Amino acid sequence: MQNCDTNDFSAMHFSTDAFPERDRQEAFCEIVARSLLKLDVTPLHDQPLAATMSFRALPGLGLSTGRLSPIHCRHLVTQADDDDFVLVVSWTGGGCSVLQGDQETELHNGQATLTANGVRGEIWGASSTACDYLNLRLSRSLLEPRLSDFSAALARPIGADNPALRLLLGYCRILNDEKAGLTPELGSAVITHVLDLAALAIGATRDGTEIARRSVAAARLHAVKADICAHLADCKLSVAVLAARHRVTPRYIHRLFELDGTTFSEFVLTLRLRHADRMLRDAHFLDCTISTIAFDCGFSDLSYFNRTFKRFYNATPSDIRRTVRGTD
């Protein structure tokens, strides 16, 4: 198990595969369930307990993702050391049942519900297959003022088609894939965005809904930028394509970049030029022609690539290549 720094959102990982089979259940219960999650865990369907999990944390916010074999979890109220909320999300695997006090609900794939530490609760898998899940621990003092009525929201299903929930889950996926840690400024922004999106999904106050619009825009832009990075080599990447994938209008995409002080075209061009520059300076790509590098970075016109590269770096791609080779 690897430790994480709660100041930078870096990941802590746990897998039962790291232990001998006979020790896996006890290792999970001791290291994860009782210590971190304050849960009493029992395997279901006579299946051995198997878990692969990642944990990330910032002050007031925790993100837990992974895959679990069917289990029954009981919240250890007497051992709870906080009264935070936990947003439980069933990603895949047949769903689960959630009990909070006297309220019980069933979650199907893509659905979520709000739970609270300090309230008697149980969760158990609804099928005999492993489940992919996401849990968000949210500070009560930060989230409750954003909610219209948290007590009415406990153990109430949030539909998979809820726009705020979809955006929140997409944002969390991006955060969970981040390799680098966060600066204090970015960490503070992440906390705000997640809390606002969670409040919208659960049921925000009128003031909270208005305030959360800024976080929605920031989360949308983060998701769009991640999408661009993932498809940078596609020369057909366009605002229209992105808008269709993110279920918004092309004008909305343009507006997001305007609010960020740039344009879609400038952002994509800068990313492609920087990626090309890194490849040109990397000795591993010395056998690649400049045209191959240009096309691999999403440029469809070599002349345009050469012109824009020289304007951006005040040097031609050939100049950079000669510098790397150590030739005049």
UniProtKB/TrEMBL annotation:
InterPro entries: AraC-bd_2, AraC_XylS_family_regulators, Homeodomain-like_sf, HTH_AraC, Tscrpt_reg_AraC-type_HTH. SUPFAM superfamilies: Homeodomain-like. Keywords: DNA-binding, Transcription, Transcription regulation. It comes from the Bacteria. Pfam families: AraC_binding_2 (PF14525), HTH_18 (PF12833). Residues 222-323 form the HTH araC/xylS-type domain. This is AraC family transcriptional regulator. It comes from Bradyrhizobium iriomotense.
